[in-house]
Amino acid sequence: MVKKAVIMKGDGIGPEVVDSMINILKECNIQSELIYCDAGSEQWEQNGCKDPTYIPESTMKNLEEADACFKGPTTTIPKPGAPRSVAVSLRQKFELFANIRPIKTFKRLTPNLDLDFVCFREATEGLYSGVEVKLNDDAAIAIRQITRKGCNRFMSSAMNWAKQYDMNKIVAITKRNILKKTDGLFFEEVQNAIKNYSEMQLEEIYIDNMAQQMVVNPQQFNKSVLVSTNLFMDIISELASGIVGSIGLVYSSNMGESYAMFEAAHGSAPSFKGQNKVNPTATVLAGAWMAEYLGETEVKNAIFSATHQVINDGKYVTFDIGGDASTTQMAEQISNLAKSNLRK
What we know:
Helix content: 40-55%
Distance between the termini: 27 Å
Shape: globular
């Protein structure tokens, strides 16, 4: 049976990088059906800002009938009353509780730094639950929701990743000395998750110290699964992206029990819209990862290998990683090499 994936191109630079990704998947003869749908603030504004969400009903119907989806970068308007982000909406709708961002360096970009770890972010709870109350004109509060069920299923996913990729350490990022109840519950479930893995190391690091450690000695986290609550890991994974060379290199997935959403880690960068100059790597690799999720591992492997070759060669790369190639030029080079890899 043919698998189906919904493709949402998004806002800002989204259509440019997503089109590059789609072209590469097609050139690699992906067999899954790709269904194109609208989502994001641009279409929301064009339709009169009437909908309560950035995701039209027709798009949601297609999402519900698909096996997975790809979300291009989208803009979330930072004003009270505006809809919540597309990513948060879909994570909560489909219970995509594990946001996963592998962090790996490229030899040409960081010749003196070799990193290989993964950031696991609980993606349905914490401050991203979006529960806020305005007490009066001068005060408002936000609820940091942490549940044992949410932590348990999240940690089960993180442990499965550690086993699959032979990682031997869990690093829990908390602020348990201050957030004693919420981070206390989270850390209890981290401890419970590793009870049956005697070979697995566990380290707890407070979020403020973690930011420092990520800058001064990120190599200490190699072969580790970094786990944390929603906001803390959002910040740390963004910091990690800067260390590897560019946010344009970091791809991600949002995994649940029976559904997944794939996306680049970066935003919609509206100031670069239409310039054909942004790095397509994160989107391309996220799309390749989606192909693997849909059962086409050979497509994923060919694209990953080609992308690493293009970046390490340095001749057809975008401005953020030391080149002058356009988005389409870099993507075309990846496509050519990926097709060659598939023929081998």
